[in-house]
Amino acid sequence: MNLAEDLGRILSPERVLARPIDRLARSVDASIYRLIPEVVVRPRDVGEVSALFAYARAHRRHLTFRTAGTSLSGQALSDDILVELGPLWREARILDDGRRVWTQPGVIGGYINLRLAASGRRLGPDPASIDAAMMGGIVANNSSGMCCGVAQNSYHTMESAVIVLTCGAVVDTSRTGAGARLPADRRALHVALSELRDEIRADTLLSARIRSRFAYKNTTGYSLNAFLDHDDPAEILVRLMVGSQGTLGFIAEMTLRTVPDPPARATALLFFDDLRDAGAAVAPLVGAGAAALEIMDAASLRSQAGDRSYAFRIEDRTAALLVEFRERDEAALEAAVSRASDAMGAVPLLAPARFTRDRVEREQHWTLRKGLFPSVGGMRPSGTAVVIEDVVFPVARLAEAIADLRSLFDRHGFADAIVFGHARDGNLHFVFARDFADPATVRSYAAFMRGLVELVVGKYDGALKAEHGSGRNMAPFVRDEWGDRAYGVMRRIKDLLDPERILNPDAVLSDDPEIHLKHLKPLPPISPLADRCIECGFCEPRCPSRDLTLTPRQRIVVHRELVRLDALGTSEAREWAESLRDDFDYEGIATCSVDSMCSTSCPVKIDTGALIKETRAASHPPLAQRVARALARHFGATAMGARSGLRLASFAARTSFGRRMLSGASAPLHRALPSLIPWLRNDTQVPRAAKRLPMLRPSPAADAPRVVYFPSCLTRILGPLPGEGAMPTADAMLDVLGRAGFDVAYPEGIDSLCCGMPFSSKAFFPAAHAASSRTASALWTASRSGLDPVVTDASPCAGALADYAVAGLAAEGRHLDVYDFPAFWSRHGLPRVGEGRRRPGVAILHPTCTLMKTGGLPDLLRVARAHSEEVILPPAAECCGFAGDRGFLVPELTAAATAREARDVLEIASVRDAGLYSTCRTCEIGMSRAVGRPYRSLVHLVQEALANA
Question: Percentage of residues in the chain with pLDDT exceeding 70?
Fold first, then answer.
């Protein structure tokens, strides 16, 4: 039997991934475990999921559903059939003015919150991973977070769902009378759930046990509270699915109630001399209405000492509480802060409490808290994996419990662990890193886990899991927490809904008492930067190639496996490694945009783009290196040749015969120099060549402020796409600068200057430095030795100038101010023209990667809002994947990267008079291709606003 061929007949061959690189890339989640699936499948509807269930039943196969793979306890892994939902289950709708949301499982939680922001609401669950985690995993793990507590978690905000049962039946509880139809459709299921409900309710001890355990955060085992909270078997079924981690069925759709997101906020970081004092402060602050209460022990505070200075010495029992109040308006917020001050009157603090409403300062406080898990990941030795667990203790005994945890760590050799958590809920997280390739470490970990169970359950009657889902790591201990009676009920639920045991084996419940010690992931060292990767997946939503090939996490996983296989040296390992390397050239290298956006969401700031650049640099043949240096030395001729090539290509592309000729002629050149020459396929949209730069006009005022305009090489080479007729960007820049009263100068020899990015993005670093050095000298002269600011029309160009030219001058003690247009206009243009001259209609923006990485988004928004009646940043706006020339060399990358944003834009633009704008010509081309409407430079928005005022 060929598993891939069988499944290809059920789905379609292109949605069955069976190559080693496909399977390996999805073999990890954020936990300490690894399982390599036999095959990865991507169903697209409930019918195909039902067919997969039928196949698994018939052939005794196992299915594990996976969305983002941010799970921390090993519940998103499989060594059989892994069902990947992220790429094809991404529909979401906002209902009732934001009071409800309907979503499929592959939608990122943070994306939904962005769409809800205008209505002043958010999802109830607020896990720290919400900007990466998808709704399927959030619901399947019954996620909560820092502010949602119990009342606003996935279980309590779930309204209805569409469920596919393992027998293939579909239950839709959103329809009127769903409970009444369940008996007719599934009589045996209705009866079994009803009988189990009545049996649990009749058992007073069991009912009391269930109520007490779900009065606080608890995700250990199944949601037995469903039998007490709901009478209707259909509603019980829905709630059993919440927190079941994909072991009972498949949630294909879900509708959740949202919660208010109060805009008025005040935050304070309170320091205590003793953990007990911090624990004593929790109850009064809860009584005052604190929305968030995050506790941090001394080890937590020390782990952040490099990023934060303390006014006092951190002793072994020093602790801190991060406190935040959230209210509907400033008056209510002031009253809450006053209550907190009164409540804290008798609690000793190391420094007076100071609540801040300043957004930047508040975010700094939260960065401290959110950085605790990453800080261990970033500091851990190479080759070690990060363990993070979350347990629950009675709130009143929190300080005592932390002290007991620290003693447990010391006894088992984990003294470097840090402890923090959601004090309001008694929910503590602890983190440490170890090399699980060492058998002695595994033995210590086994003893520690048994001691943890005895402490949490035996001494405190707490919960072993609060919000991460039990997964493989806690599956052996579910009976310890719940006892035989409740555990027996959970077994009966599994037997009822998954009688053939086809779903996610060993997650939630397991017959193997040592399952938490098996399949531990290998983490061989590969480089000082990449070794810090904890495989959490936070980088993936920002990656342009996430739906096409690999993500940053997956690229690192493949690198690690290649190192491991090379060390093994067996014939089987060599064969596996050869397959990985063959596919990695395209999957990992050619389709990486190297935009470094992954580092902006990576908890430990790993720049996978930089790693891929290093790989590209090492693989460049000598001929390509020589050609790149020659192109950089003679950039004027290079630009002229590029424009001539575009003219020829534009002429040829007018006919189908010409397009075929172009494709045939460019293909062998692309194969010879793939990093430098694009393959102009039949369907490639080729922009026309740019016109010559316009002549400078003399300033009307003798005392006009002077500015040096550096037109990017993109502006000088790439003209409009077919059908576009906008004023050239350079002309618009001169018009705008002239209307603001600036005296404008070009650097001498502008036609031969380059910022270096066209070469650095392709990892031709010597060529990039040569180009930027010449440009630095020209800009220094043109700016009168740094007296005048420099502005360029492309944000990536400004970023490259800052990285190379400006940095080089600074190293020589020379200072030069270089801005992209949004930053320049925000600081120098708006003060001269004011903010009241606006273009009618709405401006839809696409922020470039450089602008996002350099913190330039506020400038972009300020300029757009100053010159447009309405400004919209699409919720799905991310890197377009054009990445300098990737959009020409690998156009499918840009198509995949822009698909979701294009849908958002078309939805908005179809009902409004919209102009589409960005700050880089290639980004504008990529987005124009995706949307089917022209994107223009932000300069054009300002020019139209000023011209029409």
Answer: 95
